[in-house]
Amino acid sequence: MQHHFRMEDGVIHVYASESDTVELFPVASSTTFFTDMHHLLKVTSAGNVRSACYHRLRFLEEKFRLHLLVNADREFLAQKSAPHRDFYNIRKVDTHVHHSACMNQKHLLSFIKSKLKKEPDEVVIFRDGKYMTLKEVFESLDLSGYDLNVDLLDVHADKSTFHRFDKFNLKYNPCGQSRLREIFLKHDNLIQGRFLAEVTKQVLSDLETSKYLVDVYR
After folding, report:
1. Residue 127, SS3?
2. Annotated binding residues
3. CB 120 within 8 A of CB 135
4. Sequence-ordered strand ranges (E) for 59-168
5. Average pLDDT, stretch 21-37?
6. Which residues span the membrane (predicted)?
7. Coil, helix or strand for 168?
């Protein structure tokens, strides 16, 4: 069935055909949305609301800890009794995954090492008035493929990034270096995003062979 999509005041409306005037999926107007959003922001910024929410969250956290103390062993036995099921063969969905973070840290590390070994003379960046090869970039950072490990890469978003987008964004810089981000995790660079495209293909290939993992990319 064909549908007709029409943008009206910044909101997409769906109609059965171009001549139809009745929406198939009625949605609020942008004015209503922003009015409601500002009301919510006003409520959440109120001091007494924040205090109530904080105490409620603390209460729920302590309640969960109590649940663990009482029922953890019982749940563990129940998990063991379930045939052919563990963490690795239950279906998992990763949602809202950023493209530049679609690979895990071990995969990115292996990819960087592979490129450093196979394509060290590839010209990858223009910095400080000159073109630099991949090998020269790592030499300028005083790094080698042998030095690299997951801890040095430091791209894992841990609890220190919670509510801290400044720290979260820094995790996109492998080894804390913006030039490595530009080379490996950006599409608008000197090599036109070839490295990012290649590692993305590898990730998608892994997902195709994986029976239990599904990703939703933003």
Report:
1. strand
2. 96, 98, 167-172
3. yes
4. 92-97, 123-127, 130-133
5. 89
6. none
7. helix
Which residues are annotated binding-site positions for substrate? Answer: 98, 167-172
The per-residue pLDDT for 1 is 61
Q: Residue 116 is which amino acid? A: L
Asked if residues 215 and 92 have their Cβ atoms less than 8 Å apart, the reply is: no
Side chain identity, residue 70: V
What does DSSP assign to residue 125? E
Q: Are 97 and 214 in contact (CB under 8 A)?
A: no
What's phi and psi for 126, nearest 5 deg?
-115, 110
Q: Which pTM does this prediction carry?
A: 0.67
Query: Which residues contribute to the annotated binding site for Zn(2+)?
Result: 96, 98
Residue 28's SS3 state is coil
Mind listing the pLDDT tens digit for each residue in 91-150? 899 888 888 888 989 999 999 999 999 999 999 999 888 999 999 999 999 988 888 899
Beta-carbon contacts of 134 under 8 Å, excluding residues fewer than 6 positions away, are 115, 116, 119, 120, 121, 122, 124, 183
Task: From residue 122, give the alpha-carbon distance in Å to each of 118, 148, 154.
Answer: 9, 19, 24
